[in-house]
């Protein structure tokens, strides 16, 4: 069991050199003008259902990446579970309605990045992405056991966080944003397995690993609560 202790948090991930707040301007295309109704936590809920643990932390990857650990080669990816078939939908293709219906059924685990160099003699240390949002959830769970009885210890297990967030609804606007962002990269009317593979190679051509920061960078819309919680 992994226990989470809050207070004097150290080893938070470094802010990326180019923040997501500047990403649209740096890419030379405007952000989608529609007003978003979703928040950062909604993006965490989505990424945490699509990403697998890799050497760089949790990332969306395909079998073509040379950076996927040997122990993971050949194993089905979490995002591949989206293509489970369905009425009127081929197992290799999905539209937005199928994406929405299937995504919420996938298991959730809070995604992590890795902290390197800030904690001497510790090597790679997994750190939750969007740590402010992570701490908020832990605070909500602190002092309460799964049976609702107050706990004197106040320790919260990572599995408790995963269960809590996994049971939360995902804003449909956030799902639409992610779907449209991937669809825009493929130039197709629907998403296929091969299409998502192309998205991965387009978003992460160097290593084929779409980590949290890369995923956020290519979203066409910012969340309602701003961009700073992505990176803090």
UniProtKB/TrEMBL annotation:
Name it.
Answer: Uncharacterized protein
Its source organism is Vitrella brassicaformis (strain CCMP3155)
């Amino acid at each position: 069991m992994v226990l989470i202790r809050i207070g004097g948090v150290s080893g938070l991930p470094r802010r990326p050199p180019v923040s997501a707040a500047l990403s649209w301007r740096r890419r030379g295309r405007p952000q989608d003008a529609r007003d978003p109704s979703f928040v950062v936590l909604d993006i965490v809920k989505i990424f945490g259902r699509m990403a697998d643990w890799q050497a760089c932390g949790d990332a969306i990857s395909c079998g073509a990446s040379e950076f996927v650990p040997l122990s993971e080669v050949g194993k089905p990816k979490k995002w591949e579970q989206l293509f489970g078939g369905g009425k009127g939908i081929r197992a290799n293709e999905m539209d937005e309605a199928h994406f929405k219906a299937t995504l919420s059924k996938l298991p959730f685990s809070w995604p992590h990045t890795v902290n390197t160099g800030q904690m001497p003699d510790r090597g790679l240390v997994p750190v939750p992405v969007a740590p402010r949002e992570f701490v908020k959830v832990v605070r909500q769970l602190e002092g309460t056991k799964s049976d609702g009885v107050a706990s004197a210890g106040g320790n919260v297990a990572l599995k408790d966080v995963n269960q809590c967030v996994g049971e939360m609804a995902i804003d449909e606007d956030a799902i639409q944003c992610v779907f449209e962002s991937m669809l825009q990269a493929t130039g197709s009317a629907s998403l296929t397995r091969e299409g998502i593979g192309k998205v991965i190679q387009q978003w992460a051509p160097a290593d084929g690993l779409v980590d949290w920061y890369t995923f956020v960078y290519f979203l066409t819309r910012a969340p309602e609560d701003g961009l700073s919680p992505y990176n803090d």
